[in-house]
Amino acid sequence: MSDTSKPGIRRRGGWAELPPMAPAGSPASSAVVPPTAAGRLMTARPAAGEASAARTVAPSPLDPGAARDPYPVHRVLREEFPLTYDPLLRAWVLSRYADVAAALTDARFTHGHRPGDPPCAQTHAEVDEGELRRVAAHTAYLLARRIADRTQADLVADFCRWLPAGTVAAAIGVPYRDMMRLVRGRAASALAGQCTGQISVREKALASFLANVLADRERAAALQDAPAGQIARAWTESLRRDPPVQIAVRRTGAEVRVSGGTIPAGESVALLIGAAGRDPERFRDPDRYDPQRDDPGQLTYGSGTCPAVLLAALEAEYAVRALLDAMPKLRLADGFRPEPAGLITRAPRTLLVRPGG
Length: 357
Prior knowledge:
Elements: E1 10-12, E2 15-17, H1 27-31, H2 35-38, H3 71-80, E3 83-86, E4 91-94, H4 97-103, H5 118-121, H6 129-147, E5 153-154, H7 155-160, H8 163-172, H9 179-183, H10 189-192, H11 198-214, H12 217-224, H13 228-241, E6 247-251, E7 256-258, E8 261-263, E9 268-272, H14 273-276, H15 307-326, E10 331-332, E11 340-341, E12 347-348, E13 352-354
Parallel strand pairs: 4-9
Antiparallel strand pairs: 1-2, 3-4, 5-13, 6-9, 7-8, 10-13, 11-12
Helix pairs in contact: 6-8, 6-15, 8-15, 11-13, 11-15, 12-15, 13-15
């Protein structure tokens, strides 16, 4: 049975859309436990030498409050429940970096569509990186100049929402006035193939990146004329700490041993990208945004190339350059602090700034 045949779980662009959360203890929340999983919620075989968890009930990534701050739940899952069955997700949950990273590439898991993975790269024709760089820069500078004279602006609504679509529009020759209507439809497939749906993900990733950059004025100033490699490190760090996609769903094609036990074949598995990116076993001081980190890494994109991955990196680079060139004194609005939100995809919904400082 495929994931899409289970009620409440649908796929779009390889990422999972999950059902509305039912209150704990309600008939709806208890009814979603598959009969085959009902008796094994806490019976996953422990790894050799691993002590039993101190708690008896694992929290859910869909618990109330997780949309505001999922990371306390992620921490408990990593430390005490590295493998648990979640009835709301209707899937086994993996939260440690080693397990999540392996599941994203292990052939025993079905491969969803993650830009940059080898199966993704094979679906795309050759692209002209120089041309993509040109259109990303042109679009970013055009958008930055449009807001430079304002007293206050919202970078999510006025910049992040337009740059990914505008870059694709320019690359495939769609008139600027038509880009939102056409680029989000079939026209984008001429460039991005299966990655068309990644425009929304790139918007969110860009919003989080700019929030991280602008949170520290010295950090922003250091990136203004920085070489591309330095901006790329800052971008990678933002994808690690604040990934735009928090949960990816896969399915086991065979029995798989992971931290905390064994997942049977034919089971849905929820990979907590957000939890893995803040695993202290992989990253030092994982909750801190550190663009100079000497142990970098991210799981949003695979290690290969495809237009969506390349465009995301170019958009991040030229967003910083264009915004700070057009508005050297750009800073967050007085009293404003970005507040990321979301369970499956996550990013600030607003990013209020003062272009003139």
